[in-house]
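Re: duplicated header lines in exported structure tokens

Our pipeline writes sequence and tokens for each protein into one text file. With two proteins the header for the second block appears twice in some exports. Here is an export where it did not happen, for reference. First protein block:
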Amino acid sequence: MVGTAIVTDCMCSAVDVASLGITAPFLWLIAGLFNGVIVFLGQRKWAGDDAESAFIKALIVAFLVALPTPFPAFLTVPSGIVGMVQALRRKS
């Protein structure tokens, strides 16, 4: 799910640059909704979260994707590593 958010954010940033910002409001809204739904459904199914927790996480991801700036690399890579370590600890 993190990969989906990062890839979608990169695609939106590239299209935003290519269109000189004309499509930005519409594009960021669609990307935020798209990722919010994916995170909500994924958290419910694979992480076993209740509806409220999954909705809060989906809102956070949708907001981050809808921001008109790309994700900084110095945040995404360490966050992915921390998430992987936590997932591996739960399985052990």
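Second protein block, exported in the same file:
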Amino acid sequence: MLKLANRKTAPKTAAKTKTTAVLTPDYVVLDYPKNLEPITARHYAVRVGSCDCVGMDLSIDDQPWQPCRWAVGYWWFDWNNFAPGTHQLVARMHKSNGDYVLSKRRRCKVV
């Protein structure tokens, strides 16, 4: 006859969990056009990704800020009538407390 042995283990102690608040940093990034991407069309939709915000603007070649539109989870700027050459784009996110967060500059080449 087989004798089964029971394994005795020490009772498990509850694991100490440390709860910390996770703060998501504010971010704004120009998704498209990619850096140095050649643009061949006469109309281009610039896509901007960001965390929660109340508004978004775009500046092309350090010109005045122009508002973007919100659709399908992204901010969009419909860019048209642009001159051939290299352009610099930067986005400005409006936070709910009145502050702004700027994206990194993105260069693209219109051919």
